[in-house]
Amino acid sequence: MTRTRDRTGRWPGMITDGLVASAVFAYNLPIQGFGAGPGGYAALLIPLGLCLPYLWRRRRPVAAFAAIVAVAALQLLAGVGLLAADVMLLAGLYGVARLRSWRWSVPAAAAVAGWVIAAVAPRLGEYFLGPRDLLSLLGLVLVAWFAGTLARTHSDHLASLRARAEQAEQERHAQVEAAAVAERIRIARELHDVVSHNLSAVGLLAAGAASCIDTDPRQARSALRSLEDSSRSAMQELRSMLGVLRSAEPTGHAPLPGIGQLRGLVEQSVALGVPVRMTLAAGSAELPAGVQLGAYRIVQEALTNVRTHAPTARAVEVCLRRTGDELSIMVRDDGTGPAEPDREDAGHGLIGMRERVGALGGRLRAGPRAGGGFEVVAALPVRGSG
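^ histidine kinase, sequence as received from the core. Prediction below:
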């Protein structure tokens, strides 16, 4: 398709060049050249040789110009005087200056100027030719070269502007795509944290209710009520999160969780049988919303991993402490840790934590403890918070 458009776009220029060459050749026929020279076929072939190469001046400007100069040189050697078709030398020079660099156009201009001097100087004083006429013809050579060079400079400038505009457009598209990918990762991370935490709680509550529904119906009903509360809380948090993700405008949904909601998170884990003890240092709650959400999600994911992969843990410790411009988060347990560390579900949680900490410019270390159990330690920078 592109090649077809290029060929189609060349036709108007080729037709124009053909009309110009034909007009010059037709105009030359009834006009006698200055000075004696052969007639007959020579008088016909020389103008034809000067005009015909002009048809290729767009695709092969240097070759077309060289052919015109060669025919003009034969014209001098044959003793044919100046012809109207000699104007094709100027047209060929313009084509070289228009489509090629100075490395080609300057020698071309010198060649035409040399031809003009060789053709006119011997005839000064004849046929009304004087020094002023010679200077005028040399001036036309300069005008043809300058016009072609100016057109090429303008064309190169436009091409440079188009290239910069295309590059800017490509960069803009790349930035939009990168932002879209980052947004998808952020949404996936939020969904994973919310869904995995609440589904693990629902699973534990459902298993507890199923295990005692025959032996202790009251305990089973209590577990089912807790399951209902956990499901309702999960739906409310999902609605709040999706409402924020859909629009940056203020909404009527509850705000996203922060450090203030950690106690409820710990109480839920305790209710599910996970012995959690939390230490929250003073000043930790006076933090930017993004840091608070990050801290909440890290603790949430760590506690979810404890329930899922270390159900035998007898003690889980959660500690948040602000030191200068940094918030330290530590979650450790004394359980056996994940039996399969490279499982897909466990891997997604740790990857999400690392991405979240990295987005906030912090550091994360997660792995087995030397004395047994598992430990998650994160450090989030706090900027501009009082």
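Residues 2-129 form one domain.
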